[in-house]
Amino acid sequence: MDTLARPTPTVSLTANLPRYTSYPTAPHFGPMEEALYREWLAAMPAGSALSLYVHIPFCHELCWYCGCHTSVTRNDARIARYAAALETEAGTLARALPADGLVQHLHLGGGTPSALGGARLTKLMGRLRALFPFSPQAELSVELDPRTLTQEVVDALATSGFNRASLGLQDANAEVQERMGRVQPAEMVAAAVTRLRSAGISRINLDMMYGLPGQSCEHVRATAALAAELGADRVAVFGYAHVPWMKPSQKAIRMEELPGAEARLEQADVAAQALRAAGFVSIGLDHFARPNDSMARASRDGRLRRNFQGYTTDQAEYLLGIGASSIGATPRGYAQNIPDERGYVAAVEAGRLSIARGLTLTEEDITRRAAIERVMCDLALDLDALPPEVLATARPALEVLEAQGVVRLSGAWLTVPEESRPFLRHVAACFDAYLGQGKGRHSAAV
């Protein structure tokens, strides 16, 4: 299978850039007082659309490649106390809002949300529904590990109204699985998909990765074929981010076994071509969806969004983060909870919102954020819509990318051709006024 023609080699394949799930990005957050976040919440107009993100920072075992905020535990008392704190925090947030908002999206992330167990998941969802009105059309999604998914958890999710599940497929090859610290036969993933669909949770997302230790293009192609065979509605293809300075567990992965920059790019190409051949359409940087999926429709209609969970159809301007390290977003800025589980629980039990860090958006931030989001979602941008001072700072970098064949500048329009899709983060970075400031370190852009 031939790979796509690429821009000239002068494009840096080893550049470290943000994923731009927010702007400004989290490394630029600073200390923040709870009172400011309460002020933002109190300003929410009545009837606003709401989105909820609930973070469960527990796993039964740690995958070596994982970059998530999680820890390993089977301590039931610890899990029970955390689950109770989630309910308490949700109540505190609900009381901080001036009027009911309608929940359009809810996402349980982790970690592994199933670590709560079926009974606690049911209780948590009951509490959230009692506190916040949910739209009948709300999308309720959850991240799941096929290795620990029990029928009890599946039944609890179905009873609670979940209608979308994301499963980590990563790579189907047994040797690659051994090297990344996550062994799960294809039959195990298939069984998990079957159980979910049998319970009425019919919308299935699968995550796969490239750039893993010992991984080849053939491994990536086989994994994409398996994702299509399992009937996934959406597939996310993430490049492994080797950040052992942030995630010590990644030290178990040997650097010499990781594919280089050119190999990573080829693997990303192979995944994209295999999924498109199976009937998926490309979404933004690294997502793929069936043509009739809501994300594909949003992409066609220019309604695709990007937030802390990645690409989304969620249009809500208010995202409430619940749980340790969760980030809330409002039109006025971002607010992140205490990352440390014990500190988070103590703050919540004391009746506080456990805000640790955040950032107040300036008008320029909002303008640049919108530009970055449209580039990441639409692969196009109307440059005439930008204030002259913003465009003046971005244009020199855009012209460099144009000379390298990455973008096209035609009159007022910036477009990113299909063959340059893997370089979307490079294009978005042209509008990032914070890049290079502070101590934040990022993963490889390709």
What does it look like?
Residues 1-9 have low confidence and may be disordered. Helices cover 35% and strands 22% of the residues. With 446 residues, it is α/β, with parallel strands linked by helices. It is globular, with a radius of gyration of 21 Å. It has 13 helices and 20 strands. The protein starts with 29 loop residues before the first strand and ends in a 17-residue tail after the last helix. A hairpin with a 2-residue loop joins strand 15 and strand 16 (333-337).
Short structural description:
The chain is an alpha/beta fold and 446 residues long. The protein is built from 13 helices and 20 strands. α3 (118-131) runs parallel beside α4 and α7 packs parallel to α8 (261-277).
- CA radius of gyration is 21 Å
Q: What overall form do the CA principal axes indicate?
A: globular
SS strand fraction: 15-25%
Query: What's the total number of strands?
Result: 20
Number of helices: 13
Helix content: 25-40%
Nearest-integer average pLDDT:
93
End-to-end CA span? 20 Å
Structural class computed from helices and strand pairing: alpha/beta
- For the biggest β-sheet, the strand order reads 10-11-9-8-7-6-5-2-14
Question: Secondary-structure map with pairings?
Answer:
Elements: E1 30-31, H1 34-42, E2 49-56, E3 58-59, E4 71-72, H2 76-96, E5 102-110, H3 118-131, E6 134-144, H4 151-159, E7 164-170, H5 174-180, H6 186-198, E8 203-210, H7 217-229, E9 234-239, H8 261-277, E10 281-283, E11 287-289, H9 294-301, E12 305-307, E13 310-312, E14 318-322, E15 327-330, E16 333-337, H10 341-349, E17 355-360, H11 363-378, E18 380-382, H12 388-403, E19 408-410, E20 413-415, H13 424-429
Parallel strand pairs: 2-5, 2-14, 3-4, 5-6, 6-7, 7-8, 8-9
Antiparallel strand pairs: 1-17, 9-11, 10-11, 12-13, 15-16, 16-17, 18-20, 19-20
